[in-house]
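Follow-up to my earlier ticket, as requested here are the two runs.
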Amino acid sequence: MISVLYVDDEPALLDLTKIFLEKMGNISVDVADSGPRALEKVDARQYDVVVSDYMMPGMDGIALLKEIRGKGNTIPFIIFTGKGREEVVIEAFENGADFYLQKGGDPRPQFAELERKISRAVELYKARQERLESEERLRQIVQFLPDATFAIDTDGKVIAWNRSMERMTGVPASDMLGKGNFEYALPFYHERRPILIDLVLGNYPEIEAKYPSIRRVGNKLYAEITLPHLKQGRGASLWFTAAPLYDTRGRVAGAIESIRDITEKKKTLTALAESERRFRELADLLPVVIFEMNREGVLTYANRVAFELFGYTDEDFGKGLSTLQMIAPEDRERAKEALEMMRKGLMPRSSPPRDYTALRKDGTTFPITVYMTPIFSGGEITGLRGIIIDRTAQKEIENAIQESERFYRTIFETTGTATVLIENDGTISLANSEFIRLAGLSRDEIVNKKKWMDFVVQEDLDRMQKQHRLRRSDPDKALKNYEFRFFTGTGEIRHIYLAVSLIPGTQKSIASLLNITPRKRAEEALLEANREYASLLNQIQDVYYRTDTEGRLVRASNSWALLLGYDDISECIGRPIAEDFYYNPADREAFLQEIYRNGKVTRYEVLLRRKDGTPVLVSTNSHLYYAPDGSVLGVEGTFRDITEEKHAREQVRKSEERYRRIFSTMPSAVVVYEAVDNGEDFIIRDFNPKAEEIEHISKNEVIGRRVTDVFPGVRDFGLLLVLQQVWKTGEVAYFPPAIYRDDRDPGTWRENWVYRLTSGEIVAIYNDVSSWIQAQDDLRKSKELYHTIIEDQTEFICRFLPDGTHVFVNRAYAACFGRTPEELTGKVFRPVIYPDDRERVRRFFASLTRSEPLSTGSSCRTGMSGGTSGATGRSLMKRGGP
């Protein structure tokens, strides 16, 4: 319903306009008899449109328009007046009027035109608001990206500088936006020069040479570099990604660059090497086959069980073993397809298991299940790794189960009709799958627990019970077929055609139930449609029409006359549609060719001519209609005016396309949610390519679905609670790395940033940090192992600073001085050295330098807990300090 405020100083026109507009059915009208009164009403409540007369005492329509626009109110405003002077029209549009409509003439087409102007004004206003909201949402998403991100236009001026970039460089966006002349290079290189983002827009060979690891993938650039002056001189390793930005026509409009600090990641690479060694040792202890292969399918690693199960030797492995030769010939084609998927990069990280028949070296075969995942190196798939499970025993069990199931289905599931076996007291003792589906309950809830009377509508129960009793007392008189209403376990009612009879020699009945609900509903719908058809033509806002085979208009709704500017539909009936109503009569022939070729057209655009000769663009859905003998009688259909709608759609499309291009290039996963159930759950509204990559699921599979359905582990993960809190409070939330698990994902670490858009939608930006977390854990374990080894040594081991502060001592060292490690660690302690040995010890430590940090050793005498003893030591200077 559109709410309209109509302003006019003539009471008669106020009443007349209100009556005509509200008669349309989709408009409610409030009135005001002066400009000041209208201002009070606009301030007091929300209207969709203001329609105002021009000439009014005190404050005319233009003055009212200025007052409303002066308050920042952009509500659609239509001048509806008897004055038609050109200067009034110009002044109205200059001050923000949406339409200008002149009074006079026949009121019916006049008010019909006013109703169309009101509808178009509302549609255009909504389209503008949607475009502004789309642009604001994009700005907010870029602003809250966790990676430092900025963008430039083709002139090299900064057009975006997000908060992460402010934190990384210390330069606020207000000091950077709009700047050119390579201003953005200063925080990183302390000079104005082209950087990676400029290589997207131009050719700078001397700059490209400064990025030793630069890589191009399509139109994107990737590079890594270490800048020693960042982080207060500590230095930082950065990963850069740059890509072009496009306008709505697909032309390059600038470039965007994101920067990620990977310093900690590089520190963990060394620890990962140790983890790799331990993995190999563990793999040989597992009872399943573990393997790795390259892109050509040649094994590069296999554990001990693999050799035992397939019968190959280390010598065979050294010569090169193809995985395909270990697959039986009948399955090799499928195995080749899997390899091809891997080479093309189509295999997801969480690939589903595959069943094959394996071939041993001696020629015998056995069933296996293979779990595989791609191996990535440098962003590219270099091979596969996985496990193989011998399914010989499992296959035997599955075959036995399948044989049993086939036997059961043959006996009981031979009919496609719902069928039940009924005991004398009405209990259902057997029910097939069709009846289970019809009832909407489980088999356990029905068999031997429900009676047939439980599924009958109360009004039909008495006559059916009489038939049940009659069938047992006088079977020949009982009805074998009749209709009744079936009450399902979910509370729905179905119309059923029943066939029932006694099983000879028993008091049991066998009954088949045919669902005829669609037929019943169709019969009822046909009756209702016939009742409503007559009134529908005179009420629909779209235009209905029918023409004969000669192209004459034989029937049309009243909206035909309103749209084309005729006083009554009688002026149009019987006239040739091509010559009298098409703006270009020749277009009618193209329309007829299309409709006779396909039998119908959908959203077909036609340019019609109004009574005054002006064009109007309409969209029609039309089809042929036929006589009972199958001959064509003509064309019928509906159409609507889409002139303004088409323009508005184009504006929205351009805005959405701009948002979509930037959204799809973001280096982090971004998901947009809409709250449902008062914020208890969330529907997925958008899903960018990075999210598809991390989740191994396509956007089309998740859009419109609940997050708790797509990601069932989201509650235990804790992110659902964060989404709910951000939706309620509007405060940005950081959700630190945690493990996410569900049936599809065995467990990956995720790091999330969550915030709420002004539209109320929730945006989650996140990354898969599993590799980083795993590396940290491996490093921790390595340190624990190091300390265990040191503590188990009987030699004296310590580490101390030049001032004598002991950083670390093992138990053997502390015990020799009668102390505990806790009493020495962190404290200054200087062992008593025999006077004759002190000069030798001093020279010994002075000989240690950064170039020669390791000494073969020196001996001295020192005071220990049991008296003076001799000791021989070796020393190592720690890099980065003494």
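Run two:
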Amino acid sequence: MMERNESRKYLQHWLNNSNRPLLIVGAAYSGKTFFAKSLENEPQLAAIHYCTKIDPESLETGTILRNIAWQLVNRFPNLVIPKLASVTFLAHQNSALHHFLIKPLQSLPIPKVLSFILIDGIQKEIIPLINQLTKSLPSWLKLVITSRTLHDNELKNFDRFVVLNIDENPNELIDFIREKLPQIDSDCVFECCQGSWFYISQYSRALNANLLTLPSTSRSSNDDDLFTLSSHRCNFIPNGVSALLAAIECELPTHLNLYLQLITASRRPPTRQRLIAAIVLTANRPTNLIESDLHECEPILECTDPLILNGAWRERFISDNECEEAHSGELHYLDRIRILREFGADMIELKCPVFDYMTTDLLVKAGAVILNQRQQKHDFVFACTSGDWTSVMNLLDAVSIDELRSGLIAASSRGHADICKLILQADPHAANYVDSQQWNALRSAACNNHDNVVDLLIQNGVEVDECGEGGRTALRAAAWSGHECVVQRLLKCNANVDKQDAEGRTALMAAAFMDHANIVSILLADGASPNIMDNYGSTALHLALSSGAQTSDHNETVAMLIKGGANLNLEDMNGRNCLHIAAYHGDQNLPTIIDFIQNIDAQDHNGRTSLMLASSQGHLIVCQQLIEHGADTDAIDEFGRTALIIAAISGFLDVCEMLVSFGADEGHKDNDGAVALHYAVAHSDLQLCKSLITSTTVQATDTRGVHPLLIAGQRSSVPIVEELLKVGAPIHLQSHDGLSPLRAAAISRNEKVLKYLLEYLRKNGEKLELDELDLDGVPLIHTLLVLRDRSMVTMLLEYGASATVRDSHGRSCAHIVAQLNDLKLAAIVRKYGAEFEARDEDGRTPLMFAVWSSNYKICHYMLETIGVAPNVADYQGATALNIAANNGQRDIVMLLLRFGAEPSICDNLGRCASDVAQLAGHDHIRQILKSANGSADSSGFGSLPSSPIQQSNSKFFLQQRNIGSLKSSNNSHGITTKCNTLKISH
């Protein structure tokens, strides 16, 4: 999935610098949900909820809060969420939100890292909930929402929000176009898509499913019209979402409207089986035909079972199924009360108002009854959570065992000892109940620092180490939360201080990770072992050092663990001891830790030493401390890399300079044969490169023959290239794949570097060698033509590249532009002497190439502007007219005839153009040719003309690769281009 990097940067800046919530707005189908989904793996995303009209429940308060809450529980395992009934969220939204989510969040220790909740696609129904969340969430948990573009009066509801208009960055949309539709001009698609990301995605899916074809390059307008590129370039791309859907609809089954109407009419997305059953009843079609139709419709479905329509498809057909709400002001619904009664409104009992008060009032008038307070069944768990002793007392005898036990956990988490006592009197066994989230009453009370409830539960005989399958005890919960009194109370009751949970974690580990030094001290004094390992091989000290904290509490915690007997040489599952962990996180306590380490150069399972780990994160002071204590600067890991190479990979200048000053070897090669400079030149940091440049390193080649100047040509700036050349970098040295610095810069479109290299060679009187072929027999100018880079092509021609240079198949620049159908490139190469009558090794002219590719524009240009001969035959005797007849290209046949193409010319097998059309099954072309020829068919027999595709084993590759590189291919269309890719594995 493509990342919206600019939007992500804005989001990160907002998260770190603003205390206000964030509203992301954009037009319909502008990629808001796409962006939201791209954030799902963001480390700081705590919870995400998608609001969608296809699932009405997703807009209900209870659904939203429950979904967010369960995600938060997974992120913060010590979060105690009460099980509230759905009616509670409807009847007591403010109070339910407070007790269900806000109070539990406030009970947590403040995390060390900021987090955020994202709600995508908000609707007006949930605006009150959004405003409540905005006011209530703790400062460390921020809120992000997305919405379609809002009017000024609607924005007033979000005056507290920072607003990000996602439509204001067109570069992200252009990148998406290039990723999804690389075969079509991005500017043209950008113009036609009208800002819709759905358009791009649906267009791509339609092309892949062959519902649509690539935009035709044949001209459909009157031949006498004057052709201009700008006015016709987008003629064959659907203009806007509606046009795209209409074009796709023509290729879908005739019963499409019925299928889509049935899908959109369903309250929830229907399963495939249910939809088929409905279609059988509605349309009386056989099941096998319906299955076939649904398979053809898959490119417009977001999900195939249940069936969910992609974006605009649902809105396109939903209008046919719209119905007015009963309280609508439409005149023809004035008898709405009678209609509602006929449908049974008088049999409805409402526990609370529904939807809105207008609807509720209308239902009551139609006979519905709102139960009064005494008739309603209260939410027992909510009463326990909110401390409503009276309601609990009244409901105690009527609730189920499960409600009773859930109520005890809820009351324990809020410290309502009187309610806990009532429940324990009613069901003493409730105290030992463990719910699906591994909470029992004791752990719930301990985690939330309610020592009075802890005492009550223990007095009632609760087992102090009671826990569920997760193994998380009350002691571990209290230690994680930092509640000293509760920890001491549990220890006095003989809680097992070293009991491990399902992950092997102890209470000491929990306290150490949270830097609760006072709790660590208490646990150690009670006999806790500091050297127990969890399932990942980590000890309490490993976990403390991995928190990345730089506080006095953290330093005190580390000191306490060391004093308490922690073994700093124990290794985790990655082979890392405490020094490795401290070095990686840049811990302030590293000098103290070093004193306890047996081998400062100990390597983990990847061969990394502490110095390497510190250099990988740019921790300058830590690196210096390690070296001063004797760390080996030239130790190598399993990839043959030193600390210097690792620092260069990440671009840490200060670390590289420091390592070099301490004698690190700049010329050391890793297992790929690369020195640190190979990696440094990729960062465009001149000072970093200067610190690593020597007469040896500039000449160093890796196992593929790549040297630093080659990489710099692709990725770096002119000053770095200049610095490399000053020290003697080999400007003519090619890689094993035949890639030179000049070619690398050109293919990477690094125009400034290319110009500098050309001037450098000219200034030094050296041969430019711009027409050399690569290992696949392709000259550089051909490669740049395929990339459609006009400025680079022009520059190369200005510096002396030949416009007549041939590839290994005898094709010239004119052949290339003919197949590309690019008039501007054609004009450029013509200006510099390209031969448009040139023949390739099979005798084909550029005109023939253009005809084979159905490129009307370039055919017209060559015939009218350049005046190429239309009757030239290739070595099989086929003319351009024969080829057009074979392909059934009416427009091009008419064009060739207009410019003097002779229909009677026969190929080597004696076939004229009309014979070829007949063999290919194009009767309409045959009739045109007979009329033009005025004679009967000839009697030629044999096969049809063969295309460049059949004659050549190489491919005309029109796709740009990363870092400007093209791979060679030997199995398809016409012209081969190739260059080499420089890769460095970090």
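The only thing I checked on run two: Strands lie at 22-26, 45-50, 115-120, 141-148, 162-165, 301-304, 307-309, 349-350, 369-370. Let me know what else you need.
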